Amino acid sequence: MELFSLHQKTAIVTGALGLIGKKHCEALATAGADVVVADIDGERAQKFAKQLGSNHLGIGLDVTSKASITQALDETLNKYDTIDVLVNNAAINDMFENPALAKEQSAFENYPLEAFQKSLDVNVTGVFLCSQVFGSKMAEQGGGSIINIASTYGMVGPDQSIYRDECRTQTFYKSAAYPVTKGAVINFTRFLAAYWGNKGVRVNTLSPGGVENGQNEFFIHNYSAKTLLGRMAKSSDYQGALIFLASEASAYMTGANLVVDGGWTAI
């Protein structure tokens, strides 16, 4: 079990206050890491870090701003000696405030360029910038693990039928933004793994499936029917995979995409 230990390691998680971001932080802390809880809401990040324990740090971080990321690096190094794990978790996944307009707004023919650009800025450029700033420090140290959080939709196209209700009415469409950006993340992982392999920096992707989180019953049923395990994920279902990628248990693994999706992409 020592292979999975993260004692005396520092791990930073972006988008740390999200649905699975908190679970990432909890898993890293349980494995012994000093966790940097990084989120756009710095005050809430500080509160959550205190809940994890006194040795953890909460900071405000805008992943689209290199100045913000550089400041986060400085804050981290002021408290800890190294940065050993980076979890690029921050991302935008389309939400439509008015259900009555969701179908029209999400249709590809109508999807706003501004929304597409915002997803690119956070989901792709944010991963690029965080990797550039924090990963460069890892390369300078001579080692580290970068984990980029992608999605099953980075590998396969969205099945729009799962967004139809019991009356077979399309409630909304999964937009192009999420699949496009998550596909980019997977290939960016390969680039970084090849680029920094000789510096001892391992870079892998974790591709999760959908997490049950109070969605409509028809959606949960439709989604679950497409998985081999017959259910959506729990928010804690990715903790073991994350610790594996962060720790020495995966010491000979880089440039890979670890898929944890209940069998969604297996058939």
TrEMBL record:
InterPro entries: NAD(P)-bd_dom_sf, Sc_DH/Rdtase_CS, SDR_fam. The lineage of its organism: Bacteria, Pseudomonadati, Bacteroidota, Sphingobacteriia, Sphingobacteriales. Keywords: Oxidoreductase. One of its GO terms (molecular function) is oxidoreductase activity, acting on the CH-OH group of donors, NAD or NADP as acceptor. Signal peptide: none annotated. This is SDR family oxidoreductase. Pfam families: adh_short_C2. Belongs to the short-chain dehydrogenases/reductases (SDR) family.
